[in-house]
Amino acid sequence: MVDAGYAVRQATTADAAIKMLDAKDFHFRALITDVNLKSKLTGWDVARHAREIVPDLPVIYATSTLHEWESMGVPNSIQIMKPYAPAQIVTAVSQLLNAAPAAET
User: Fold this and answer.
1) pLDDT value at 105 more than 60
2) d(Cα 75, Cα 21) in Å, to the nearest integer?
3) Phi/psi at 32 (nearest 5 deg)?
4) Domain ranges of the chain
């Protein structure tokens, strides 16, 4: 699926997201995760796992309540409050990608 010019992969659970990240069959340029995933794992956990694989991966957390983003979130991430407009996600991804160090070729 392509949305706003980005190829999008969607996982419905934290475990599925981690498996997708571990598969390495797709080059992820950003991660968007809800904080509350209604499971043992949280969005904080998924983001930390993603950063173990790609240390500077842009991360956007979506949440409907104020969480401990400053202490739980990975560095150089953004938190967006629900409800949000899809354009806010696109802007956040673009902002983080533009701020990321240039990839080595």
Assistant:
1) no
2) 19
3) -120, 125
4) 31-99
